[in-house]
Amino acid sequence: MLPDTQVNKPLIGIAGGRQSLDTPALLLDLGAMTRNIERMAAFAKARGIGLRPHVKTHKSVEIARRQVAAGAIGVSCVTLGEAEVMVKAGIPDVLITSPAVTPSKIARVVKLARLAGPGGMMVVVDDPRNAADLAAATLGLPHPLEVLVDYGAGYNRTGAASEAQVLELARCIAAEPRLKLRGLQAYAGNLQHIVDRQQRSAAAASLRETIARIVADARRSGIHFEIVTGAGTGTHDLDAQRDAFTELQAGSYVFMDAEYAQVLQDSPGQPSPFEVSLFVQTAVVSTNAAEWVTVDGGTKCFATDCGVPLVARGADPASRYAFFGDEHGKLFCAGQRPALGGRVEFITPHCDPTVNLHDAYHVVDGDTLVAIWPVDARGRH
Fold first, then answer.
1. Cα–Cα distance for residue pair 192/237, rounded to 1 Å
2. What share of residues in the chain are helix, strand, coil (percent, to 5)?
3. Which residues are in the D-serine dehydratase-like domain (predicted)?
4. Which residues touch 179 (CB under 8 Å, ≥6 apart)?
């Protein structure tokens, strides 16, 4: 029996193979993704700011390689497991954006830092105790562990909660000979999805003012933050002004999703600067109900935290999807109903967690399946 990631392999290179895929299938439009990668890289280069895209979006070595080849300075990883995959694949300059605090995680950090070598990996710290634990664990490491102070940025999912705590933590790190202070992380995920651009711009500007003040106060006390990293897809154009950040951690731009497509509209009807490149293809498995058809994609196929999927192809875009169980979706059709076995492709509600529900990307160029790429870091913590 073929593993799930290989069921569709015989269709690679066959014209029209897109319509014969075993479903549900995670689709990646190669042309659209490539244009997104190139657009963001060109945007960052034109503004003289670094780009360190988030791997949490795609969890793919192949996509990370393409981002670096286009000009990214490295990648960001939320989990240590993602970072292990990227470092072992030779992806340069990997930043782990969430603190590693338990003994097992710290041991893995030290092992990975040894493998990555000087300049190959950085971690963030938001507590002096964690800094001390990391320093103690790196006694046998042939080079200092590179560290950024994590600032809560008003969101406080992780990070020091105040400017005073940031400076205190920076001094603690700088005092540890086994640690090397590289900079400051200030990622405000809560700002990325503010739909109203004026409100999003004001919130982002306020955060940048705070960050600039922290950096200036640190400099006056003898602390230099070489790197100031943060921002995201939703604020990438606002935070590229170089008044605070030296690099962007945008990730979702590579795929886009239903929410970001709305967020990045400058005005109603104005398209986003990035294209939707990620879809889930489903098949209609029942047409017996008068009010809807049933497709083979449910809560185990789509993220459920940001609304419902939107129809992209195979049915009228005005059709309305509703979750219908683990493996099924209910599609209330506008216009002509798709036939039994017909294919309906959806824009994902939230790209990152949707990707983590699938084993592979079915990479398409038009109607042709051109490759199948594994979701390399799926489930890696």
1. 11
2. 35, 20, 45
3. 277-365
4. 131, 134, 135, 138, 144, 145, 146, 147, 173
Q: Quick one: which of 165, 181, 234, 243 has its CA closest to 210? A: 243
Residue 291 in tokens: 């009010």
- What angle separates helix 61-70 from helix 30-46, to the nearest 10 degrees? 40
Q: Which CATH class is domain 30-255?
A: alpha beta
pLDDT tens-digit series, residues 268-315: 556 789 999 999 999 999 999 999 999 999 999 999 999 999 999 999
Are 323 and 299 a contacting pair, CB within 8 Å? Answer: yes
DSSP state letters, 166-177: HHHHHHHHHT-T
- The contacts of residue 185 (CB under 8 Å, 6+ apart) are 95, 97, 124, 148, 149, 150, 151, 159, 229, 230
CA-based R_g, the chain, Å = 22
Q: Give the pair of three-digit tokens for residue 365.
A: 């160029």
Instruction: State if pTM tops 0.90.
Output: yes
